[in-house]
Amino acid sequence: MALLLAPAMAVTQVVIGSSILDGALGFRYPAALAAEQNNPGFKTITSEQLSQMLPHKDFFFVNVHVPYEGQIEGTDALIPYDKIAQNLDKLPADKSANIVLYCRSGRMSEIAADQLSRLGYLHVSHLSGGMIAWRDSGHALMEH
What we know:
This protein has four helices and seven strands; from the N terminus they run E-E-H-E-H-E-E-E-H-E-H. The protein is α/β, with parallel strands linked by helices. The protein is globular, with a radius of gyration of 18 Å. The model is unreliable at 1-37 (pLDDT under 50).
């Protein structure tokens, strides 16, 4: 007698940086979110925090989004998030300098921030929600 089994639904978990994504459902586990928020390598800032920081800018400001979809005024460099390690010469030589990264939604900047912190940069931040959150909070975007 042959026994037929229905194929089991494969549930995959993908680790991206410090995030764990559920491949079947597409949500982040609370533990992964807590780990991201407590990551000692980089910090996450809000649009409100960035708007308070920009008038007294003491940081190197990098748009890491690809493809180009605009930028926030005061941007110092455009470096693709997945090429950040190959473009360290475009960043401050001092690894203790303040660096703020952003992209369209926050995901690419989070990946780049994690990579910079792993490369020894001590004061890296990224903008939560990216240019979408920036625009939604009433701030303007510029074209290159």
